[in-house]
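Slide 14.
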Amino acid sequence: MKPLTLKIPKPLLKIKDKTILDHIFDSLPKKIDRVILVVGYLKEKIQKHVGNFYKGRPVDYVVQENLGGTADAINLCRSFFKDGERFMVLYGDDLQFRDELEKCLSYKYSWLCFPVPKPESSGIADIRVDGTISEVVEKPKNPKSNLAAAGAIVLDTEIFDYAPESHPNGERYLSSAINQFLKDHQVFAVIGRERPSLTSSSDLNNSYTT
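Slide 15: predicted structure.
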């Protein structure tokens, strides 16, 4: 998204005159009663835009000083949750549909998946006959499906018991911890519809509704 992101954090880029972050907030089901934002790059602009109460929900902030990966970002939020408390993980640059998020919340544990044209370039879910996910394989050479695991995941505090492996680039990804979690818990795949492609700054003119 450069050069736009040189001065604007990606969640504040606009699609049809509404920021990505606003699209996310507008897609949240009513059951989501508070939001924790993990911020880092240009965090002051996000905090100014959202404040401590936004679109009917209290907002807390966690600052990720070092880019240690998505698992580290989630682990920074541990102190906000009671033992056993359930929560939904969303990424700040993903666009979601409210009905799909509501369906995710209908399961104790779930992971939103949707079809992609090039599964070899995504994290692909291996889904059992009963609809649960056995594992997610990153960029498989021989993908078993075209269903990519998206950034909408319903978990609880048990996820913090699983230590993610370090990627060769030094980061620790949440998917590594969840793949361990999958061995001990039934995580259901919620099949969503295909997303619009946002691969360049020019694509920000695409329409999108929640």
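Speaker note: The longest strand covers residues 147-156.
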